[in-house]
């Protein structure tokens, strides 16, 4: 039955003038309009807007005595009664209605209707009374996620523990997998991925499938997924950008494990010194000591073909890597090694001061000669260094 707004307001203001349950019961028995409004859950919810919390409790207790006309008989009635109430009004209504709520939840649609109007604390109270039956209602990934979203972490863990043996069977596609991960802790994600390991390649088929997860999952959750998928990651990544986007969201302590799985594929993806520099500057500092040298030995002999490649490498790398690069390239008879000194001097403007000095010092110490160092010194410094430079030229004049 639909009621005019004026009728709702009239009943609301009339009931707001009463201070005890007896007056409400008398009004309910004598006034046909009041009886009609209070017998309909939608109209009752609108009437409650006009009452303060104390009078809401008074009215609902009075209505409970009228069993033939009591409007809250199913879950949708709870939805209508609570809709539009303030937090204080809803708390007052919940205090009266709470004992009957577990009996109203008979299926998942009832769960949504009731729990969508409850606070976290109220949800926990009702959950504790119906949880045994609730586990039997859950039959899909979507239903599992919906239940968990209404509950705090402690109760989520209870739901997970009760359903963890069935949970892998709920996941039919990547959307189910992603939604379930969102409501699990990293440890639970790890256990789920372990249970799903044989079917993970069918759920995550492309790099885009993996990339879609990274912005919504936490760093810990995303790291668990990448480690679980590490055997298949080489087939998913298609470029250096894909690799970097994976490691950008990984936990630092999980980088080494994923890097080892990707290393053979990574060497194939590095096509230029720019690619090498991006990977080594971004990725390797977060893996483990020695990774840079191993990658340099695998890639640089095929990448550095001339002066231009060498200078691009120096510009892009951190000075901390120069000595390793020198060691890796030294056995290779590059055509530009003989004029390395003039190469570094003429390119001083394009290299930063720190990069220039670091590379120069590395090559000087390895045998490039000391004359270049004296060339960039001030007149006073040249005088002090002249003898040192001469001895270096005599001792290492053969060059690199």
Tell me about this structure.
The chain is an all-alpha fold and 400 residues long. The chain has a domain at 1-104. It is built from 29 helices and no strands. The protein has helices spanning 5-16, 21-30, 32-38, 41-47, 53-64, 75-82, 87-97, 101-104, 108-115, 120-137, 141-149, 153-163, 167-170, 174-182, 186-196, 200-203, 207-211, 219-228, 233-236, 240-248, 255-269, 273-282, 291-303, 307-316, 322-329, 340-346, 353-368, 371-375, 379-396. α6 packs parallel to α9, α23 packs across α25 (322-329) and α26 (340-346) packs antiparallel against α27. The longest helix is centred in the N-terminal third of the chain and has 18 residues, at 120-137. The model is unreliable at 363-378 and 380-400 (pLDDT under 50).
Quick gist of this model?
By secondary structure, the protein is mostly helical.
Task: Summarize the SSE layout with pairings.
Elements: H1 5-16, H2 21-30, H3 32-38, H4 41-47, H5 53-64, H6 75-82, H7 87-97, H8 101-104, H9 108-115, H10 120-137, H11 141-149, H12 153-163, H13 167-170, H14 174-182, H15 186-196, H16 200-203, H17 207-211, H18 219-228, H19 233-236, H20 240-248, H21 255-269, H22 273-282, H23 291-303, H24 307-316, H25 322-329, H26 340-346, H27 353-368, H28 371-375, H29 379-396
Helix pairs in contact: 2-3, 2-5, 4-6, 5-7, 6-9, 10-12, 11-12, 11-14, 15-18, 22-24, 23-25, 26-27, 27-29
């Amino acid at each position: 039955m639909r009621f005019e707004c004026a009728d709702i307001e009239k009943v609301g203001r009339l009931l707001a003038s009463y201070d005890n349950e007896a007056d409400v019961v008398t009004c309910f028995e004598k006034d046909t309009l009041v009886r009609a409004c209070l017998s309909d859950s939608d109209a009752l919810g609108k009437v409650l807007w006009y009452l303060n919390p104390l009078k809401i409790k008074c009215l609902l207790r009075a209505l409970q005595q009228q069993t033939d006309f009591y409007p809250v008989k199913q879950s949708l009635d709870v939805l209508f009664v609570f809709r539009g109430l303030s937090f204080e009004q809803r708390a007052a209504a919940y205090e009266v209605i709470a004992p009957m709520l577990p009996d109203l939840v008979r299926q998942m649609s009832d769960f949504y209707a009731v729990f969508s109007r409850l606070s976290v604390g109220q949800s926990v109270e009702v959950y504790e009374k119906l949880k045994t039956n609730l586990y039997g209602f859950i039959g899909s990934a979507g239903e599992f996620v919906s239940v968990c979203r209404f509950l705090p972490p402690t109760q989520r863990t209870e739901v997970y523990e009760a359903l963890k043996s069935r949970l892998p069977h709920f996941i039919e596609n990547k959307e189910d997998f992603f939604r379930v991960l969102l409501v699990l802790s990293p440890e639970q994600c790890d256990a789920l991925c372990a249970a799903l390991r044989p079917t993970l390649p069918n759920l995550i088929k492309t790099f885009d499938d993996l990339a879609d997860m990274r912005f919504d999952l936490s760093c810990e959750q995303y790291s668990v997924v990448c480690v679980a998928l590490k055997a298949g990651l080489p087939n998913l990544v298609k470029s250096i950008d894909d690799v970097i986007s994976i490691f950008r969201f990984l936990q630092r302590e999980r980088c080494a494990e994923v890097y080892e799985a990707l290393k053979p594929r990574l060497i194939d993806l590095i096509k230029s010194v720019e690619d090498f520099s991006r990977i080594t500057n971004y990725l390797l500092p977060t893996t483990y000591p020695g990774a840079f040298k191993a990658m340099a030995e695998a890639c640089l002999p095929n990448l550095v073909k001339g002066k231009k490649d060498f200078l691009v490498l120096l510009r892009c790398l951190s000075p901390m890597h120069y000595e390793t690069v020198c060691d890796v390239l030294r056995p290779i008879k590059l055509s530009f090694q003989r004029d390395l000194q003039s190469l570094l001097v003429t390119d001083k403007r394009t290299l930063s001061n720190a990069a220039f000095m670091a590379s120069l010092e590395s090559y000087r110490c390895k045998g490039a000669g000391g004359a270049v160092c004296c060339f960039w010194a001030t007149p006073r410094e040249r005088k002090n260094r002249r003898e040192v430079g001469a001895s270096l030229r005599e001792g290492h004049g053969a060059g690199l």
